[in-house]
Write a structure and sequence with these properties.
294 residues; alpha+beta; Fumarylacetoacetate hydrolase, domain 2; 2 domains; seven-stranded mixed beta sheet; five-stranded mixed beta sheet; 5 helices; 14% helix
């Protein structure tokens, strides 16, 4: 648990939570959090911990059962007349990486690789057919989330191949519990690429609000404690991800997630956002400039 600039090891407090694999421990804690919260607080108060800079921060949810992502869920700064029809897709748990890790761009003929800055919900208890009015009772907390995309792949039905690649879901650095986020529907979302601010929008611009997203997904399938529901992005600031870049994402109040990008093929694209291209009368994604598949 985070304590200022330090981190406190609370492993002994949660040692009685059963699990088959270490990655399942956090889900077990989330499901029984109210039974452990006072003991966790006591452990944190009794220890100064160690410097956060002295440890490696792993993905806070290393093996979620479900990662659901809302598709086209922003009003794009008022450029949409109405919300797009509600829709979503899934990503593999193998897409998850954490702070300081590396998103690896695969050897595949995508026209561009992009990463979408998103607020993600962390589910707190088993959720099936949840009414929108009850949705927030099922949210344990929130975390930063990147939806990596390999756009423009050939084929008739390539959405899974575009979205569910290994390393294409950076999350973290922490889970912030719901009680520490006053209004998740009014949070500024910022993404920097090599220090340049590219995405900058507010979660109040969602077409389908958080409660409706929970209602929609749980009408299709059950969500479990520790599952992730990513709420979509404003596409106007999307920009190509390419070799050697450092990406930083900060949803207001959730800390800053930083990770690296590696492309062994060293492909290049113009460093332009969708909005910058649209202002010049060009289509959204920049074309590849050099390298294999250009």
């Amino acid at each position: 648990m985070l304590k200022g600039d330090n981190v406190v090891d609370v492993s002994s407090v949660v040692s009685d939570i059963p699990y088959l694999e270490p990655q399942q421990l956090i889900s077990g804690l989330i499901a029984n959090f109210e039974n452990y919260r006072s003991k966790l607080d006591a452990a944190v108060n009794a220890s100064s911990g160690v410097a956060l800079s002295s440890v490696r921060v792993r993905p806070p949810l290393p093996g979620p059962t479900n990662i659901d992502c809302m598709a086209v869920n922003y009003m794009e700064d008022g450029t949409r007349d109405e919300p797009a029809p509600i829709n979503a897709f899934q990503k593999s748990a193998y897409a998850v990486i954490g702070p300081g890790d590396t998103m690896v761009l695969p050897d595949t003929p995508a026209t561009v690789f992009e990463g979408e800055a998103e607020l993600a919900l962390v589910i707190g208890k088993k959720a099936t057919n949840v009414a929108a009015a009850d949705a927030f009772d099922y949210i344990f907390g929130y975390t930063n989330f990147i939806d990596g995309s390999a756009r423009g792949l050939p084929g008739a039905n390539v959405f899974h191949a575009m979205k569910s690649r290994d390393t294409f879901a950076p999350i973290g650095p922490y889970i912030v519990t719901a009680d520490e986020v006053a209004n998740p529907q009014n949070l500024q979302v910022r993404l920097w690429n090599n220090g340049d601010l590219k995405q900058n929008f507010n979660t109040d611009d969602m077409g389908h609000k958080i409660a409706r997203c929970v209602e929609y997904i749980t009408s299709i399938h059950t969500l479990e404690p520790g599952d992730i529901l990513a709420t979509g992005t404003n596409h106007r600031g999307l920009n190509p991800f390419q070799d050697g870049e450092v990406i930083e994402l900060e949803v207001e109040g959730l800390g800053r997630l930083s990770f690296n990008v590696r492309d062994d093929l060293k492909r290049t694209w113009p460093r332009e956002t969708h909005l910058e291209r649209e202002e010049r009368g060009l289509p959204g994604s920049a074309p590849q400039e050099s390298g294999k598949y250009s």
